[in-house]
C-alpha cells in the first residue's frame, strides 16, 4: 500500500540545507582504485572513484548497459559514505554501467562545480547528495535545462523555490532517510528499557532530555522532530529540557561542555532517558556522562565506528542507535538512477517506500542497533554490524525493482 501523508507535513519538514546523516568515521578511498582530482573551483579534496569494467552479469540484456553515472557527495568520505560509494559502484557494474564517485569536502561551490563538470562531460546520470535547499532547486533546474537528457536522483536534498515554497523538478526523484521513524523508534526503545518499565506500565510519562536543534536548523532534524512531537503531545514523554551545541564548528566538544553544565541541574532519577538527534552530538553527551559517572540511558540517530566503540565500553550508557544500512543505501540509489535512465518511473513509484501524495519522493526505512547487539560478539564494526542486527537491517523488500533487475542483481 502506498504511504500517504498530508501536504502540511511536507511543508513542515523540509527546512534548510545540510543533513546530519552520520558523523565520524574514516576518510578513505575505494579499493576499486581512486585518484584525487582538482575541480575548476580550485578545490583539491574531491576524490574520483571508478567502478571498473562495467560488464553486466546475468542472462538478460540490461537497458542501461554502457551508461556512465556518478555519485556526487557534498561531504568528505566518512566510512558510511564510502560504504555507500562501494555499493553504488558495485551495483552499477552488475547493471552494465560505469560509475565514479566524487566527494566535495563540505564545499557547496565544489559540489555545484562537480555537477556542472560531469554534465558537460557527458555523464548519463547523476546521484547527488546533501545539496542545500537554498540553492539546490534553482541550480539543478538550470542544469537540466542545459542538459535535458541528463537523469538526476537526489539524497537529502530538499527543494525550495525562490519564494521559499516546496518545489519539485520534473523527472528528478528525491529520497531521504525515514527521519521521523528514527525518532519514534528511539523513544519506543527507551520506553522498553527495564528501568522504565514501571513508569510505562503505570501510564506515567518518561522524562526525556532532548538533544536537538530548534526548528529550521536543517531538514533532517526537522523531520526527526516530526517523529518526536507526537509522543510529547500524547503525554507519553515530558521533555525536561532541550539542549544543543553552542558551537556548530566543534559540535562534539561543545555538546560535551553543554551536557556537563546541564547535568549539574538534575539528579539521575529526574531524567529517564536522553534522546539525541545526531550522533556527533551524542558523542559529546556520552563523554560528559562517562566523566561524571552518571547512570542515565541515552540513544541517538545515526551510527559510526566511534559510536559502536562507545556502546561497547564497560558500563556504557549509550544503549541504541537508529540508522539505515549504508551498503543498501548505495544499491538503492543506483537502482533509482538506473530506472530513471530506463524511463521506468512506474517501477520507482511501485516501491513500498514511495510517498504517493508527494510524488517522486522515497524514504529509506530505519533500524535500531542496540548495545546488546554490538557487544554480543567480538569485532563488531559498522561494516559487519549486519551479522548481529535484526533482520530489518538487511531487509531489501522496500527497494524498487523490475524483471531485468531481478535477473542482474538477484532481487
From TrEMBL:
Residues 24-54 have a biased composition (Low complexity). The keyword Oxidoreductase does not apply. The keyword Signal applies. Residues 24-60 are annotated as: Disordered. One of its GO terms (cellular component) is outer membrane-bounded periplasmic space. Residues 1-22 form the signal peptide. InterPro entries: Bact_Solute-Bind_Prot2 (IPR050555), Peripla_BP_I (IPR028082), SBP_2_dom (IPR025997). This is Substrate-binding domain-containing protein.
